[in-house]
Amino acid sequence: MANVPAELRYTREHEWAKLEGDRARIGITAFAQEQLGDVVFVELPKPGARVAAMQAFGVVESVKAVSDLFAPLSGEVVEVNGELTKKPEIVNTDPYGQGWMIVVKLADPREIDALMRAEDYEKVIAAGGH
Amino acid sequence: MHATRPAYDKLVFELSSPGRFAHSLPECDVPTGDVSAFLPADHLRPEPPELPEVSEVDVIRHYSRLSQMNYGVDTHFYPLGSCTMKYNPKLNEDMARLPGFSRLHPLTPEWAGQGALRLMHELARDLAEISGMDHVSLQPAAGAQGELAGVLMIRAYHLARGERRHKVLIPDSAHGTNPASTALAGYTVVQLRSDEHGEVDLGDLEQHVDADVAAFMITQPNTLGLFESRIHQIAERCHAKGVQVYMDGANLNAILGITRPGDLGFDVCHFNLHKTFTTPHGGGGPGSGPVGIKEHLAPFLPTPVIVKRASVKNGDELALDWNRPQSIGKLQAFWGNFGMLVRAYSYIRTMGPDGLRAVSENAVLNANYVLSRLEDHYDRSAPGPCMHECVLSARRQKRLGVSAMDIAKRLLDLGFYAPSTYFPLIVEEALMIEPTETESKETLDAFCDAMIQIAREAESNPRVILDAPLTTPVRRLDQTLAARQPQLRWAPPSPR
Amino acid sequence: MRYISNTPAQQREMLQAIGVASVEDLLARIPPKARLSRPLNLPGALAETDLVRHLRRMAGENAGADDVACFLGGGVYDHAIPSPINHLISRGEFFTAYTPYQPEASQGTLRTVFEYQTMMAELTGMDVANASVYDGASSLAEAALMAHSVTGRDGIVLSRGVNPLYRQVVETYGEGPELRLRSVPLGDGVTDLGALRKAVTDRVAAVVVQSPNFFGCLEDLRAAAEIAHGAGALLVAVSDPVNLGLLTPPGAAGADIVVGEGQGLGVPMSFGGPNLGVFATRKELVRRMPGRLVGATVDLDGQRGFVLTLQTREQHIRREKATSNICTNVALCALMATIYVAIMGKRGLRKVGELSTAKAHYAAAELTKIPGVRLRFAAPFFKEFTLQLPKSPDRVVKRLLKERILGGVPVKAFDRQYKDCLLVAVTERRTREEIDAYAAALAAAVA
Fold first, then answer.
1. Domain at C84-338: CATH code
2. Of the residues B134, B322, B410, B464, which has the maximum number of CB atoms within 10 A of its CB?
3. A65, C311: Cβ pair inside 8 Å?
4. How many CB pairs under 8 A join B and C?
C-alpha cells in the first residue's frame, strides 16, 4: 500500500511539494527514503539561495547511496529544516511531516501544473520508480 | 582458527601506562645543548602529543592479536571478483627487503642507483611486452592513478593536435574509478549500456561516438568476466572518429600470454601490480598502477622517464630523463612504488613466459569450474564460458529473503572470505567470484560445497543465513550509526 | 609451475566437469587474429636461488644507506625503523588481507587504521585524519582539489618553499579542474609574506606553505593562516609528521588542511615508494575529504566495532561525483606508521625530533667552518639546511660518495636559482663520527 498523500504534488525524482500560499514546502517521498535506506546526511542550501525547477538543490546520503535533490519548483529558499542536521533519520520516519527539507517562495506558481498529482505518482512507483 | 568471541577489544591507547616506553634511542652525542637554544619558542610544542606509552611486549602482543582478527590470503580462500587475490610469494618479500633496494634514497645520484634503475627499465620493458604496448610508465601509485595518467595523456594528445574534446564513453558495468578518474581529468562521462549478453551495446556506442569524444574506456575482459569479443570493431569505430581506446587492466590475469591489449586495438592500458602481479594487498594498499601506451602518446609520458643512454665510460647507463616538454607532469613525488616494482619483477622472473601463460589458463579454468558447479544453484549473469571470474546473481535467494550480503556473511562462518557483492551494478544481487590460479581444486570444491549449502539453507532454513556471521569477533556492524555520528578518532573516556 | 596448485590430472577432471576438451575451448571468444602465436618474449623462468642471486647483484649496485652515511632529504629521510615493525607487518593476516569492505573479517586492519587516524590527527593538531593517501605530493594535490571544491575558487597559491616535486603533482592534478597555480617567492629562505599578501586575492581557494620548507627553514604558518583566512581562502600546510613530536602542529597555527609525507614514520625509503600520504582536516570539512575513513560503531550485540564509513564520498558509490578517484590507501605503510608511533610513544617521537635537530645544527656548525661553505639562509632550520658551496655541488657529491658519504641533494635540479647549493638532512641516525667524517671529506672536496 503506497504512502502517497493526496494533497501533495510530486516529481519523477521522488520529491514532493506542498503549497502554502505563495510558498511551497519540499521534501522527499516515502518511496524515496525506502529506496535510500537509513539517511545519514542531508546537504541543503542556505536561506536566500535561489533554486530552479528540476535543478539539483542539495544531496541526501544514506550508508550505501547518494542522491541529488531536485527542486520541484523555482524560487527563493526562505526556510531550511535545521533539525535534519542533527537528526537525518527524521527523513526516514516522517518524510512528509517533520522530514520536510526546504520552504521556497515561488517565482512562478504556474509551475505547479507541471507536477504530478498523487494518482500519477502512485503509478510511477508501482512501475518500479523510474 | 581465529580469535572468536569474546573478542580482543583493545586499542593501543587503552594499553597506555604513564612512563612506559618501547623506543630505544641513543643519547645525544653532539654538544649543541637544549633545542631552545636554536629553535624559536613559538615553533615548539609546549606539551608532547597525546600518544601511547606502551612497552615493546605490549606492542607485539597487541598487534599480533589484532592481526588474528583479519582474514588474509595466507589463511583463507579469498574469491573477491576483480581483485585477483592470488597468493603473495614470500620470495618477493625477501627481494623487496634487500638493503640495496629498501635502504636506497630516491634522490641518490643516478650513477649510484643503477641497479634500481635497471630493474625499473627491465620491468617496464617486460610489461610492455606482456601488454603489446610501446612504452610503460611505472610512476602511478595505484590503478586509479594509472587511469588518471592514461586519461591525461589522451587529453594532452588531443590538445596537441589542436582539438578540445569533452566526453569519455564508459560502460555501465565499469568500476567506479573509471568515471571518477575521467571526471578528475575534466571530462564528462557518458554511460553506455550493456547488451543482453553482458557486452557493450554496439548500437549505443555507435550513437555516442563522435568527434567530441576523447576516449572510450573499457575493462577487458569486462566486469562480468566476459571477453568483449567485438573489441576490434569497437576500436575501429573509435579510431575512425579519432577516439582513443583505453583498457582498464584490472582483469589482465585472464589473458597473460594469450592476447594483449596492444593487439586488441587499445592505445592505453593500465596495470594493477597488486592484482595480476602478486604484490600484496596489505589491507588496502599500497598498490602500483603502471600505465602502458602506444608510440603516439609517448611525448606525454609522466616525468621522469627512465632511459638507457650510451655512455663512453660504462657501456649502457640508465638515467632519469626530465627533458619532456609535452609531459603531463607527475602523479607522485618520486619515480614509482619501487618496493612493489621489485616484487612484480621478482614474480615475472619467477614465472617466465610459460608460467605467465599457465597463470591465465588456470585462472580461466578455475573460474569456469566454479561456474559449472554453481550454475544450478545460483543465476548466471550472462551465457557462455566466463574468463577468470564469473558473476552470479542471488536473485533466486533474494525472493526467499536472502540477499547477496547475507550470503557473504554466512560464508565467513563457513571459513571463506566472501566474493565481491553488488558489483557490477548492472547485475541484481551480484556475487562476483574470482578464484585465481593459485587455488587448488580441493579449495574450489570446498567453496562450492559451502555455496551450495547456503543455497539449500536459503530454502530450508534461511534464519541461519540471516543471523550470520556468528563466529567472527563482531557481527553486523551498525553502518548507519557510523555515518550519522562519525567517530573517526579515539578519545579518552570522559571522567565519571 | 610455481604458485599454480592444480596438477594435470586435476586440470583434466575440471575440464570434464565443465564439459570442454581443453582450456582453448574456454577462450573461443577471443578473436583468432588477436591471439598470440608465440610465447611472450621474456627471460625464461628463474629458480629461486638463481633469482636471489640475480636480484642481490642488482641490489648490490646501489649505494644504499646501510653502506654509506645518508645525508639526503628532500621529502624522504633516513630515520631509524624499530625492529618490531617488520616482524608485525609481515604477519600474513596483515599483509595479505584485502581492503576492509567486509568489516567482520577485517577488524584487525580497521582497528589499526582507526589508531593511525587518531595518531595523525593528534600529531597534526587537526580534528580528523583519513586512512592515508599515496604520498605527500598527491596528498597535497588532493588538498588543492578539496579547497577548490569547498570554496568554489580555482586559484592555488604555493610558496616556493613547497617541495618542487609536490608542485609538479599539483599542476598535473590541476589540469582537469583547470586550477590556476601561482608561486610566491622566498625572502631569505622563507615565504615572503608581503608577496603572499598581494597574491592571495578573493579568487584563491588555497594558500600552500610547507614547514619546515624544502630548504629546511621553519615558516610562520600563523601569519600565512591569517593572510589566507583574510581572503576567504584555506591554509594548506605541508608538514613532515616525524617532526611534529617536537614542533608546533599546523592545526594550532590555523591550518585548514594538513598534508605531508609520513615515510619517516617507519616506512623504508625504498627508492621513493611506496610512501605514506598524510591528510588531515577540520571536522566541518570531513564530508569533503578524499580517501578512506574508518569509524567506530557497535555491532548487533552492542560490542564495539569498526567500519569504513562515509563511503558515499568515494568512487565506488559516488563514481564521477566522488571527492576523488582514489581507491586504495597505503594501508600497510599506515600500519608501519601506527606501530612506529606506538613504539616511539609520547616521549620517543619528541626525542627523535630533538636528536635530529641537534645533530643537524652540529653538522651545520662544523660544515660552515670550512672556508667557502656557508649557510645559504639565515632563517631557523630544523633537521635540514641548505649549504652554499664554492665548488659544483654535483662534483662535490661525487667526491663525497668515494668516502662513502651521500652528502646531500644538489638543489640545481629543483631550483636553478640555487645552483651552487646542497640540501643536507641530518636525522637521529647520523652519529657524531659520521658528521665529523663528512666535515673532513667536504673540506678536502672544496679545497
1. 3.40.640.10
2. B410
3. no
4. 714
